[in-house]
What we know:
By secondary structure, this protein is α/β, with parallel strands linked by helices. The chain has a single domain (5-343), classed as TIM Barrel (Alpha-Beta Barrel). The protein is built from nine helices and ten strands. It has helices at residues 32-53, 115-123, 136-142, 152-172, 189-204, 222-230, 237-245, 289-299, 321-341, and strands at residues 5-6, 79-87, 98-103, 130-134, 144-145, 177-181, 210-215, 251-254, 273-279, 308-312. It has a seven-stranded parallel beta sheet with strand order 1-10-9-8-7-6-4. β9 (273-279), α8 and β10 form a beta-alpha-beta unit. α1 runs parallel beside α9. It is globular and about 55 Å long. The structure holds zinc ion.
Amino acid sequence: MGPIRTTIVGSLPKPEWLSDPEELRAPWRQEGRALEQGQDDAVALSLAAQVDAGMDIVCDGEQRRRHYIWGFIDHLGKVDFENPAKKQSRGQRYSEETAAPRVLEEWAWNGPVLLDALRFAKAHTDRPVKVTLPGPMTVADSVYDEVGGRSDANFAAAYADLLNKEARALADAGAAVIQIDEPCFNIYTEEVKDWGMEILERAFDGVRAKRAVHICYGYGTEVVLKWKNANTDWSHYNVTLPLIADSSIDQISVETAASGVDLSVLDCLSEKEVMVGVIDVGTEEVETAQVVADRIRQAMEHVQADHLIACTDCGMVPRSRFSAEGKMRALAAGAAMVNRELGS
Ligand code: ZN
């Protein structure tokens, strides 16, 4: 094994018998016991696909969640997903208003939500297992607080305390990496500075695992791609990445394949491990190993090889299974090419 390791951000498409593999938030096709068994089977398949492809750090592919936020927050208290409110979320970058699930009661942590899922994953692989959790700023931005009408900062702070209990429990049970997903860090730069970073640190307090944060521009859906292709201003990273560089966070996942980010923004992270996005999740087309290797070589001008984890840009839930598996193989093959050049 060479210095450059590989992993995916989190989600993989689900098998067709479990839910529609190419649709976000697709409903389950099973229920009750059949759903539970189906999710177990899907996790086992997803782990096997990651190991077969050659991922060094694996996860459950988020096969037990309809969405990276759903499937966790609804265990903290009553949330109405069926009759969402309208909210101006994501800084109105992709649309004027989005559907926001209503928070109907004060949330509480009544014991681990994802512990059994972690145990199942660990029983099915001997590779280090990562668990992904929705971040405070992103959750606050995504829901409508019917209970307290709190500001996003106050809502995020309250949620971070619950998230911290979950993260500690998962780390104590042997999660190698706890990754908190904060796509909103790429939108609310001022808020990251004012409260987002502090609250993220609170979520990680006392967590005895590698602490990771994933920031991105969202799945490769049409509206997001349109925004991404038109954007040329990456200056927000000059604010957020130095803050992360100064934090207790160990690993930072940054989307670079599809976004065209100027990689020099990574220079400030020299003390950290960087999960560099070298797989575009917005297209079905599978990259060649050569393309992946080229992207890794470019990143190596800014991140030293033993701090570099080659990764996808974001989750692959909107992709077909064929494409997602091909992209993982390309990811591993590209990293192996560069590792061979480095003499490993
Ligand atoms: Zn993402």
